[in-house]
UniProtKB/TrEMBL annotation:
Belongs to the glycosyl hydrolase 43 family. This is Glycoside hydrolase family 43 protein. PROSITE patterns: TAT. Transmembrane segments: none annotated. Keywords: Glycosidase, Hydrolase. InterPro entries: Glyco_hydro_43, Glycosyl_Hydrlase_43, TAT_signal, TAT_signal_bac_arc. One of its GO terms (molecular function) is hydrolase activity. It comes from Hymenobacter profundi.
Length: 356
């Protein structure tokens, strides 16, 4: 016969087991449906610091509710996001300027935000330059500390900092090329340079990839005030670089084509060393990693990579247009490394298992 003490111990153990089983069932059963944040959130970058995710998004000329630049969201699971104001304190001469594509890394206890500032996206006579801001906290506020000059380019955007295995940091970015040397198409392409002290470029830039395929065209017969109203028969775009080292090789992911169209999507090129040369064999037919689904998802791209809460599953974090094409919204989907190369299990628009 059980004593009252043993009965209570067994009952308590049973209740704990039942609660754990319930949590497991609920965790296994929980799903998400894109977008995971329904507000405007272009060019999303996600930083994981500790057990929290911080998402930073483009604001253009707008300001957040606290008067800052770049929208900031936080989450503990990649699907429940809370707005927390803005990240960047407006720097001098910010009025009337567009601020694009923030990315944040941590080095030696300081958080560095890289972004661009300049004119608008279409028919602007004002170029873009790269800048860096710093903060002692991942959420900011960030204060601009330096411009990262690329003298050979009037239009330089989408900075992405990458730390190699030896500890050296590099900055990947997108910049304009107006020539047709070696059969390349005029347009925005990708480059890389070594960072010096996190706030200066070494001046050793190398081209990562330029446009050479039909699918990356941004616009035909494009007249560009930035280049003295010169009209280009075709202007192409590769933008939003993001680098991953996988099985000893460097994969530079990027978004290609016109962000307003259903041709826009994510592809990649590969190199054996961080500075290249990079090859994009197999990319001639269109975006292989992530692309539109006609009638369902339009313009998915300008992404970043992060890991699930348990650190076992890699996710792409990207934007896609809402149905009315009035805003680009925050989406996530798994990334798989297949025998054919990296492939996103998306874009999805139906319920998916929640990240674990």
């Amino acid at each position: 016969m059980l004593s009252r003490r043993h009965f209570l111990q067994q009952s308590a153990a049973g209740l704990v087991a039942l609660a754990l089983a319930h949590q497991q069932v609920m965790g296994a059963a929980r799903t998400y449906t894109n977008p995971v944040y329904s507000g405007s959130f272009p060019d999303p970058f996600v930083l994981r610091h500790g057990k929290r995710y911080y998402a930073f998004g483009t604001t253009g000329q707008s300001r957040t509710s606290d008067g800052r630049i770049f929208s900031l969201l936080t989450s503990e699971n990649l699907i429940d996001w809370q707005p927390t104001g803005g990240a960047l304190l407006p720097p001098p001469e910010a009025e009337g300027a567009d601020f694009w594509a923030p990315e944040v890394v941590e080095h030696a206890g300081t958080f560095y935000m890289y972004y661009s500032k300049g004119g608008g996206a279409i028919a602007s006579s004002v170029g873009h330059r790269l800048y860096v801001a710093t903060s002692q906290k991942p959420e900011g506020p960030y204060q601009q500390v330096a411009m990262l000059d690329v003298p050979e380019s009037k239009f330089t955007i989408d900075a992405h900092a990458f730390r190699d295995t030896d500890g050296q940091w590099y900055l990947f970015y997108a910049r304009d090329f107006t020539d047709t040397d070696n059969g390349y198409r005029p347009g925005t392409g990708l480059a890389v340079d070594r960072l010096v002290g996190m706030t200066k470029l070494a001046g050793e830039s190398r081209t990562v990839m330029r446009a050479r395929h039909d699918w990356t065209v941004f616009e035909k017969n494009r007249t560009m005030p930035l280049y003295d109203n010169r009209t280009f028969a075709e202007w192409h775009t590769l933008e939003g670089p993001f680098v991953r080292r996988h099985k000893g090789k460097y994969y530079c992911f990027y978004s290609g084509a016109n962000f307003l169209t259903d041709r826009y999507g994510v592809d990649y090129c590969v190199a054996d060393t961080i500075m290249g040369p990079y090859q994009d064999t197999g990319s001639d037919k269109g975006a292989r990693v992530l692309h539109s689904i006609p009638g369902k998802v339009r313009g998915p791209g300008h992404h970043s990579h992060t890991m699930s809460p348990n650190g076992r599953t890699e996710y792409l974090v990207y934007h896609a247009w809402n149905e009315g094409m009035t805003e680009r919204q925050l989406c996530i989907d798994k990334l798989l490394w297949t025998d054919q190369g990296p492939r996103c299990q998306g874009p999805t628009y139906t319920p998916q298992p929640a990240p674990r």
